[in-house]
Structure prediction request, 410 residues.
Amino acid sequence: MTYRIVNGMLICDVPDTAGVSDEVINQIAKNTANTMDKNRSPQKILEDTIRGKKAEYAIEKYIEKNFSNEIEYVSYDKIRNDNYTCHAPFDGLFISKKTPATVKNNLIDRILKEVMDDKPYGRLSIGLRNDMVDAGIFTFEIKSSELKNGDPKLSDYEGITDLYTRKQEDYEKIANNILAKWDFFIFPHYCRKSNDIFSFFDYVEFIRNNSEKFGLTSAKDYYSFLEPLIHGEFDNASEIQTRIFFDNYTNELYIPGYTHKMAFFIGVPTLTRMMGKVSGSTLYFTRSINMCRWSFENMPRNNALWSYDRNKVYSQLYYNHTNELICPHCGDYVKPGMYGYYCSQGKNCNMKISYYFGSSLDNEVVEKLLKGKTAEFTKNNETIILTPSIKYNVFKGDLQYIWVEKKKEF
Ligand SMILES: [Zn+2]
Prediction:
């Protein structure tokens, strides 16, 4: 396989093979149908499974081809022994070649045992997850999507003259369109679907009000509950997250890079609801790809990953600094300026912190939101309650981020 690198993004043809037999694909798809998703048809699940495996295969081959002395990628489907009866706890493992084989094999044995002991959920304990990280073994999750050719202003193909052929500048345009528009995402641990949750604020309150059911200690208020909640989310998530985009016109893949789960929980977590009919009430944590990605091109030299210190990152998680003003979109600092507060990343981030649909917000309101509280403001004699979460909005063909209004969907 050959890979083109454009702006740190890997681009390659969709592999001919998914790297596993049709028998295995059928088994995975069948199990997905049974345990996970009631909305998709069996045919769609099968297609998604093949697509996901091809995306994984493209990454596996890239690592093998370029970094075989430094990193090993192990697909979960190559080590599992549950006969596809349990949910997979991750897609694969990135393992440092410095990790001794005995340590690696011992940890893999523990993974397989824990999955079987937790049939059919296949969850891993925090203790095991921590031991893996400390040994240089990182769990990995891939989400696959298709590039969209919708509204011309927001299309992933904006600026391309011919949809079916690509010149170098076309690759650059598509790569930049992806970075401008898309987020990495991670599914919440405690609650993945709800018709009543519209923001991180709602999420915290919902879990707090049902804390016993979720195995968490109850806490008096929103703030004191952030610590156990964010710890739970953080500890149970796979370490490395990526997202792969399929170009259906040319049968190519775009791999923008990867991020670490810490990107979602340093700074005010952003919780969004999936748009679209099928998955209308699915919740997920998001962070802009452009703001937190690392390129696969430099993976062996990424010290932030290989020298990752769990305890140091705990002290940086959002609940430790709810008094600081942090951008809810990218996690960078927010600074006062001429007309209210601004994200330090400026146009790179595009979060309009001091505005809501063109109405300017008082500093007092903005500060409350940035500190994770709801805040009220009045517009045309109407009181609007904003929550400390953001989501996409499309205005006159432009993509923007706005504060989420309480209990009201866009
Ligand atoms: Zn920002």
